[in-house]
């Protein structure tokens, strides 16, 4: 799988372009801003999105959904079921907070635990990870070597997602990290919603905030 990371928008969110190495089939994860730039990069990479996927419903991860849907109308827009209402709710997706329009279209596909999204030879498995938002999800490419995890704002290099925004829960975030991330092999590559990529092993040994994922905090 080919992975292209683009840092977009004023909050420097990561948009990810994924492509099957053997063809043009691909997916876009978290097109948060700069839609025309993302579209242009898809075309320069020879990538045809089969899915547009949001890890959660905040505006810095969904802000270019409309542009992507217009450019690639055959690609369903996918988001966790419990975050779907945020797409068109300017308060829920924090667009009001940043003074920008709630630009997303409604979801085409509601993601739930275990659903598989396939394009070419690539399989992304949906992992429900509430905490940063109620409907946050990760996308796990378990068949890649090493495995690849696209985790939105669940965990970062030496950090974790904030839980003080509407719908956030420190208890749920801790449980999601403990049961859905720290159970993965150490070599699993983590692609977060902001900042550089990392690995499960690096975060397990170096991330000071992962003390919150201790079972005693659950």
Question: What is the class in the CATH system?
Answer: Alpha Beta
Can you count the helices?
A: 6
Main-sheet strand order equals 1-2-3-4-5-6
Q: Tell me the total number of β-strands.
A: 14
Which shape, going by the Cα principal axes? globular
CATH topology: Metallo-beta-lactamase, Chain A
Overall tally of domains: 1
Content-based structural category = alpha/beta
- The radius of gyration is 16 Å
Supply the CATH architecture.
4-Layer Sandwich
Distance between the termini: 35 Å
Q: What is the helix fraction of residues, given as a range?
A: 10-25%
What order do the helices and strands follow?
Answer: EEEHEHHEHEEEEEEEHEEH
Quote the beta fraction. 25-35%
Catalogue the unreliable spans: 214-218
Query: Can you give the mean pLDDT?
Result: 94
CATH superfamily: Ribonuclease Z/Hydroxyacylglutathione hydrolase-like
The largest sheet is: 6 strands, mixed
What does this protein look like?
The chain is α/β, with parallel strands linked by helices and 218 residues long. Helices cover 20% and strands 29% of the residues. The chain has one domain (2-217): Ribonuclease Z/Hydroxyacylglutathione hydrolase-like (Metallo-beta-lactamase, Chain A). It has a 6-stranded mixed sheet. The protein has 6 helices and 14 strands. It has helices at residues 35-44, 59-62, 65-71, 95-98, 170-181, 200-206; strands spanning 2-8, 13-19, 25-29, 48-54, 77-80, 109-111, 116-119, 122-128, 137-141, 148-152, 155-156, 159-160, 189-192, 198-199. It is globular and about 45 Å long.
């Amino acid at each position: 799988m080919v992975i292209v990371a683009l840092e977009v928008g004023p909050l420097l969110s990561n948009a990810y372009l994924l492509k099957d190495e053997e063809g043009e089939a691909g997916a876009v994860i978290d097109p948060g801003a700069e839609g025309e730039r993302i579209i242009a990069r898809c075309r320069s990479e020879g990538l045809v999105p089969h899915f547009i996927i949001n890890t959660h419903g905040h505006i810095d991860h969904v802000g270019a959904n409309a542009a992507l849907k217009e450019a690639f109308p055959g690609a369903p827009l996918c988001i966790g079921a419990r975050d779907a209402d945020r797409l068109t709710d300017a308060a829920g997706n924090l667009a009001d907070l940043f003074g920008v329009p709630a630009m997303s279209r409604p979801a085409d596909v509601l993601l739930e635990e275990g659903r598989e999204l396939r394009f070419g030879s690539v399989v992304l498995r949906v992992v429900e990870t509430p905490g940063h938002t109620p409907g946050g999800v990760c996308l796990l490419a378990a068949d890649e070597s090493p495995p690849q995890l696209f985790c939105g704002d669940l965990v970062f290099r030496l950090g974790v997602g904030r839980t003080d925004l509407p719908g956030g829960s420190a208890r749920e975030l801790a449980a999601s990290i403990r049961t859905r991330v720290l159970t993965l092999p150490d070599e699993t590559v983590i692609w977060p919603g902001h900042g550089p990529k990392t690995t499960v092993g690096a975060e397990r040994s170096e991330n000071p905030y992962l003390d919150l994922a201790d079972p005693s905090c659950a």
